[in-house]
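Can anyone check this?
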Amino acid sequence: MDKKYYVYILLTESNTFYCGYTDDVEKRFRAHLNGHGAKYTKANKPVKVLWQCEFDNKSEAQKEEYRIKHLSRKQKEELIGASSCISY
């Protein structure tokens, strides 16, 4: 079985979004909750996972994470609302 990677968007207590990638979304979310994994989520506690998308390899996931991080908040909201993955 090939390893899968995921890009995810979290909602924080300060009503901001955080985007990242991982091979285990639940494990990574718990790490964020415990103050590990990212400076941003240490200062801005995550509330829930809003969106995630599966990729076949790490490179594709990293490219999508980079793309999403450069979107405006409105564009991120549209992506979340579309409830489908966008991939290359």
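Reply from J.R.: I decoded it. The first helix runs from residue 25 to 33.
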